[in-house]
Amino acid sequence: MERTFLGPRVWASLFVALAIGACGGGADDLSQNTGQQDNRLRVVTTVSPITSIVENIGGTQIRLEGVVPEGVNSHTFEPTPSMAKLLAQADLIILNGLFLEEPTLALAEANKKADAVILSLGDLAVTPEEWQFDFTFPEAAGHPNPHLWPDPNLGLRYAELVYDQLAKMDPDNAAYYEKNLAWFSVRVAALDQAIRTAVATIPEENRKLLTYHDSWAYFAKQYGMEVIGAVQPSNFSQPSVREVAKLIDQVKELGLPAVFGSEVFSSDVLEAIASEADAQFIDELADDDLPGKPGDPEHTYLGLMKHNLTVMVPALGGDASSLAGLETGNVFDGASGAVYPQ
Ligand SMILES: [Zn+2]
Fold it and tell me: Rounded to an integer, what distance in angstroms lies between the CA atom of residue 329 and that of residue 302?
């Protein structure tokens, strides 16, 4: 089983943060915007889990706007021409990368300011040797599974990369960003530990995932689970009858108690597989979207992971109580005004 990689720098930052005092805010907080010119960095992001990670580090000191509305398929999302203007105003454009948002990347490259930076987190967080290829993302097609963030250790890596970039572009606020990163890392470490505890309660033969959307590859590798299949084909159409029959046999053979769909990627096909194989169909995972509504404490990256594990673990016969006490809200004080398009 792989271990976390909370780097020495994060821990060093944490001690600094503890010395400064918890979750700052106050005099340097621009949330009380009184109409004077807003000189904060303008940051544009794509999918909402990434928007939330960036919000946690940038807090009230950046102007943050996500562009991929929740409830749409982020893999096939085409930005509207009006988004060109938003991208043209951005100082920093943060994407997952790994081929997830190619149309948005193309629009960003064509419209961005000369000195604006495009930060592709997934391309920096792992090396090509660490790429995972699987069901919806076969190696033959050359595009790895882009869902790094369901492994919270990689979510933290994203946060570190965001911190590095914000501190470089906005050194006046570097200490603020560093403090947010330190507190975020504490919450990620708690989440990571809670996931290990919860997964350990799932009977070993049930530590297997069949999902509709293929977003659990890096999570499974980190926590000793196995993704046995994903229903969604690589072109995001519907699977063939032969593929469906094979999945039914597999679920039956393994005696899996549950298979999983998600709100955005709900699936009649998976429901039929579950029914044929006598497994429970759980339609409540979240992949590329956050649970709840903007402003809710669970409408965050940490809330997303807590929600997913709280759904997944009991359905596979385990106990998710280790996740119950986790804090999922933003780590900074004040309202950032980040925009999560609905
Ligand atoms: Zn996805």
Answer: 7
